[in-house]
Each structure stands twice: as structure tokens, then as C-alpha cells.
Design brief:
binds NADPH dihydro-nicotinamide-adenine-dinucleotide phosphate, binds 2-hydroxyethylsulfonic acid, 7-stranded parallel sheet, alpha/beta, about 250 residues, Rossmann fold
Amino acid sequence: MTKNAIVTGATSGIGEATAIALAENGYNLIITGRRVDRLRQLKKTLEAEYGIQVETLCFDVRDKHQCAANLEHLPDGFERIDLLVNNAGLAAGLEHIDQGDLHDWDAMIDTNVKGVLYVTRIISRKMIEAGGGHIVNIGSIAGTETYENGAVYCASKHAMHALSQGMHIDLLRHGIRVTEIRPGMVETEFSLVRFHGNKERADNVYTGLEPLTGEDIAETIIWAVSQPAHVNISEIVVMPSQQANAYYSYKK
Ligand code: NDP
Ligand code: 8X3
């Protein structure tokens, strides 16, 4: 039977690569994000290339009313959701705690924590009704480590780590599997967003080392969701070979 998946934040980076990998594996998809043109283009490409059904939902996960309006009643064919990938997220700014920008802090907490909660509440209920499902949360090494200038992003990903564990506990009885993936550096639009569009600063993050790609994380997700039903891959940490943790990288 064809499986149905929702990927949040599928307009770039890890989410886009995950949507492509799931399409390659025969999933029908709901892809979400705020950039409607990118969603439409991806839908067109995936439908043409893989012959699957792709629906686009353009909304901001920070807004609980938009989440409800878009997710409570899903398009025909998506009565059952087998897989939710909670991927939409961002870092905004890199400053000491006394210097942080309130707008950046709201964006990170509202997206990385509250957005995940709004989406998960709605979709987990559908999974419970259907008798099972799988939720994959894109955490970060920032979910278990804290680095200078990153307190709020790290706090938001520590929250994702706790939420992943909490979801796992609460949803066990409903046959819903929960996986948290915690990547190190992945070259996507992440740094460009963190530095508010400063490309030079963003590129500099990856100078001298080979970062992970969105495709690397997508492959990890495919492996985790392809395990037999009695196997739950709870946590995976994925690092570039030149990065040991949030503090130590070997740059050539
Ligand atoms: P990108 O910036 O490339 O992608 C982020 C995605 O999230 C985009 O599709 C964006 O879509 C979506 N998004 C952001 N804010 C919102 C919002 N308010 N509502 C809806 N969608 C939103 O970065 P990545 O692919 O790297 O990031 C994906 C996830 O991976 C994030 O949770 C990030 O924290 C995590 N991560 C990234 C790492 C890295 O080094 N890149 C390492 C570890 C974890 P749009 O702008 O169209 O709304
Ligand atoms: C992104 C990885 O180290 O930039 O979550 O916080 S890091």
C-alpha cells in the first residue's frame, strides 16, 4: 500500500531533500513551507519524475490558526498519515545573550518549539485514529550541546530533544514511532537565514571542511523509517567527518 508523508519546511535544504528521497521511495507527499513558488515547483518536479501524488500547503508553522486551517482537513487521499517529518526550523542571529534580538528569539522559539507542537498535536491525533504512524523530528547537536552566542537556538533544540522523548513516551500506546535526528553542520540555507542574508558570513561557516548535505540527512531518515514495525530508531547523531561536536572541527 502506498504510504503518505508530510514534510514541513520542504522549500529548501533538508526538507526538500527529504521530500525527494521519500518520493523516490514511492511515498505520496504533503509538502509545506511559506514560499509558495518553491512548493509549486517541487510538486511539479516530483509528480512528473516519480508519478506520485503531491499536495502543497503554504503556511507559517508559528501561527496556530494557520496550522489548524491547513492541517485539520487534509486533501483527498491523505486520510491516513504514515509519516510526519517535523523539519521546518531556523537559527536567527548569533549573539551573546545580552545582545540578542527579540525578533530573532521569537522566530526561533515560535518556529522550532511552538510550530512543532502545533503541527504534531494535529497530526498525531490523525495517526492515533488510524492506529499508528511515525514522527521524525529534526533536532540538532545544539539539542544536547550549548555553544557561545547560540543560547536561544540551543534552547529551542534542547526543547526539540525533550519533546522527542516526551512524544515517544506518550505515543507508545498508540503504536506511533518517534525518531529524533540530530545533525551537525549541513550546508543548506540555514546559515544564510541565521546571518540574515549575509552570504559571505554564511559561506565562511563551511570554509575548510566538507559539511553534510540535505541528501545525507534524507538518506538517514529513509533508513530510520524503513525499519521493521517492531524497531524504533529513537535517536541518531550525524556529523561531517571533519566535525566532532559543536566546538571541535578540523578545518583544512
Ligand atoms: P533551510 O533554511 O534550508 O530550510 C528551512 C526550512 O524551514 C525551509 O523550508 C523553510 O521554508 C522552513 N521554515 C522556516 N520557518 C518556517 C515557518 N515559520 N513556517 C513554515 N516553514 C518554515 O535550513 P535546513 O534545511 O538546514 O533546516 C531544516 C532543519 O534542520 C531545521 O529545523 C534546522 O534547525 C535543522 N538543522 C539544520 C542544521 C544545519 O546545519 N543546516 C543542523 C542541524 C539541524 P520557508 O522559508 O519557505 O517557510
Ligand atoms: C545546526 C547545527 O552547530 O550550527 O543545528 O547549531 S549548529
